[in-house]
């Protein structure tokens, strides 16, 4: 399997199959000794309220649900999101991380 690239949407399997957006950098993902990849969960039922980013095609990345997965669990690369969508995901992560405590 080739290393995943930042901005790609992958399935994770075998069952139950989930879909994720790769958010770790491509350079990080290419490190053969690093077994994990950072991802955000992709769902079909969401809105642009909260921490979700529209990926198009009825899919939403839930940027508040970032986790890591072993690269070996990635099954199939479905597509690469466009630059604006990846920018929206980056901006959402920044908003989440930069929100000050009260």
Question: How would you describe this structure to a colleague?
Answer:
With 102 residues, the protein is an alpha+beta fold. It has one domain: SH3 type barrels (Roll), CATH 2.30.30. Helix content is 20%, strand content 41%. It contains two helices and six strands, in the order ββαββββα. It has helices at residues 26-29, 83-98; strands at 8-12, 18-22, 36-43, 52-56, 59-70, 74-80. The protein has a six-stranded antiparallel sheet, covered by helices on one side. The protein is globular and about 40 Å long. The mean pLDDT is 92.
Largest sheet descriptor: 6 strands, antiparallel
| Count of helical stretches | 2
Termini separation comes to 45 Å
Known CATH architecture: Roll
Mean pLDDT: 92
**Would you tell me which CATH topology applies?**
SH3 type barrels
Rough shape?
globular
Q: How many domain regions?
A: 1
Low-confidence parts: none
Neighbour order of strands in the largest sheet: 4-5-3-2-1-6
Q: Give me the strand/helix succession.
A: EEHEEEEH
């Amino acid at each position: 399997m080739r290393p995943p690239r930042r901005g790609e949407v992958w399935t994770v399997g075998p069952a139950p199959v989930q879909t994720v957006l790769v958010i770790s950098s491509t350079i990080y993902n290419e490190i053969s000794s690093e077994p994990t990849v950072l991802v955000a969960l992709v769902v079909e039922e969401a809105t642009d309220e909260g921490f979700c980013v529209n990926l198009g095609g009825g899919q939403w990345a839930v940027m508040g649900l970032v986790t890591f997965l072993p690269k070996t669990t990635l099954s199939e690369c479905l597509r690469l999101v466009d630059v604006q969508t990846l920018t929206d995901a980056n901006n959402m992560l920044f908003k989440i991380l930069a929100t000050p405590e009260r």
